[in-house]
Amino acid sequence: MSLQALSVASECFPLIKTGGLADVVGALPNALAPHGVRVRTLLPAYRQVLARAGQVEPVLQLPDLFGADGRLLAAKNADGADLLLVDAPHLFDRPGGPYLDAAGLDWPDNAQRFAALSIVAARLGRGLLPGFQPDIVHAHDWQAGLVPAYLALFGGRRPATVMTVHNLAFQGQYPARLLDDLHLPASAFVPEGVEYYGQIGFLKAGLNYADRITTVSPSYAREIRTAEGGMGLDGLLNARAARLSGIVNGIDMDVWNPATDPLLAKNYAVGSLADRAENKTALCSRLGLDQDDSPLFCVITRLTWQKGVDLILQAAPHLLEAGGQLAVLGAGDVQLEGSYQRLTEQYPGRVACVFGYNEEFAHLLEAGSDAILVPSRFEPCGLTQLYALRYGCIPVVSRVGGLADTVIDANDAAQAAGVATGVQFHPVTADALKDAIYRTIALYRQPGLWAKMQRNGMTSDLGWEVRAGAYASLFRSLAQENGVAA
User: What is the DSSP string of 124-147?
Assistant: First the structure.
């Protein structure tokens, strides 16, 4: 018997994306279909989403949705997956991004905006849309954190709920005075409810009320139960440990396929690695980097403390002195951007930076660089290292979260067994990163070993089939607990 699932998220590739959350939300529905789970994804109808969604069909009126009426629209994603869009222009039709205005500041009504998304999801979970009764409601990150709360607090029969944490650092905390405005009962404003240090915690609510909690790697599931990694929620997560698990993210193996990728200068595969060199030539030409046999390291990330990009700045002189080059694609902290700009000026032809994010350029960076630096201080899963593995770009990663779960360090035992795919380092310090860079350059100077690592990464199981199976098993067990034959 097939299951009906409602996925609730604030972004979904290719309609709207600020990070890896969108990739996961976009890929999982079609990955679950062969496992007998039909997913409809509920999103806000941001201006960008409506511009890209193509044909939409109004299916429901949504009266009095936090200040004005709205509509529910049905649409299809680019891959044919079913979408439901909360069309509330007073909440979502505005310039800027999904969370920030054009000045980079949080929209002042974000609490109401994402409460609206959540309350529509809860109503759909209770059968608001004729012909659609989900067995599972799958909420992603803090923006959907109130979904399990609304379903649990308003009584009556409800579907089972799963709360997936993509990054515990972002929690959605708002003043207690908004309790009534958000349609939350006063009885819920307790530590066992939505209250979090005197505020309303959206993610806290989801973690508390969901039937199951997942996160995006087993290592991260363990790390968030510690005082260091729990971001103030470790007590709750330990109390719910029996209901917490980690499932590693996958990637879309068709979109990220070096053999067919139209964004590359030259396509290549495991059996034609020599063709990969044309992408490095094209990349260096585009960035104004010297054309030589230097190992080219890339960075594709948000420029933030979490991602450890300040450590790269400290290690960069050593990388360059050892004969390497550095290409950076990212945006974020203004001071960090300035530091990287100064680095390009200090080392012309050896360092290049592109500020902002360009999905298309990221493909060429993965295909043209020799290695990618991912020195995150914490990383729930990470996708750039998975794309790098797929493209034969050796990941150099800190031994945390999903990075530890997806990259096999090229230590002596792994090299002897022929299974190494990258380089790990620990602790997460500039000195440890510097040593990892030296190790990587030494490996690069051994062409046979380097090519073996590339082939190992390119043939790794990086897709969604096994991961989707884990989600499907979880959904079925929850449905059975909830009295649904599955």
Answer: HHTT-STT---SEEEEETGGGTHH
Give me the helices (H) in 173-262, please: 202-209, 218-223, 234-239
Identical fold for domains 3-250+465-481 and 270-458, yes or no, is: yes
Strands of the sheet with 296-303, listed across from one edge: 351-355, 325-332, 296-303, 371-374, 394-398, 423-425
pLDDT band of residue 55 (cuts 50, 70, 90) is very high
List, for residues 313-366, the tens digit of each pLDDT value.
999 999 999 999 999 999 999 999 999 999 999 999 999 999 998 989 999 999
Task: Kindly indicate whether the domain formed by 3-250+465-481 is annotated with CATH number 3.40.50.2000.
Answer: yes
- Domain 270-458, CATH among 3.40.50.10140, 1.10.3540.10, 3.40.50.2000, 2.130.10.10: 3.40.50.2000
Model pLDDT, residue 155: 80
109, 118, 121: which is closest to 159 by C-alpha?
121
SS3 of 483, please? coil
Q: Model confidence over 12-39: pLDDT tens digits?
A: 999 999 989 999 999 999 999 999 999 9
Cis geometry, peptide bond prior to residue 380 (ω within 30 degrees of 0): no
**Does residue 486 carry a pLDDT above 60?**
no
Cβ-based burial of 94 (10 A; exposed 0-12, middle 13-18, buried ≥19): middle
Average pLDDT over every residue of 172-180? 98
Q: Which residues contact 343 (CB under 8 A, 6 or more apart)?
A: 313, 316, 326, 351, 353
> The whole model's pTM is what?
0.94
What is 457-472 written as a DSSP string? HHTS--SSHHHHHHHH
Kindly give, in sequence order, each residue whose CB lies less than 8 Å from that of residue 28, ignoring residues fewer than 6 positions away: 7, 39, 464, 468, 471
Distance separating alpha carbons of residues 226 and 237, to the nearest angstrom: 9
Which two three-digit tokens encode residue 382? 């990470």
Q: Which amino acid belongs to residue 283?
A: L
Domain borders along the chain are 3-250+465-481, 270-458
CA distance 416 to 433: 24
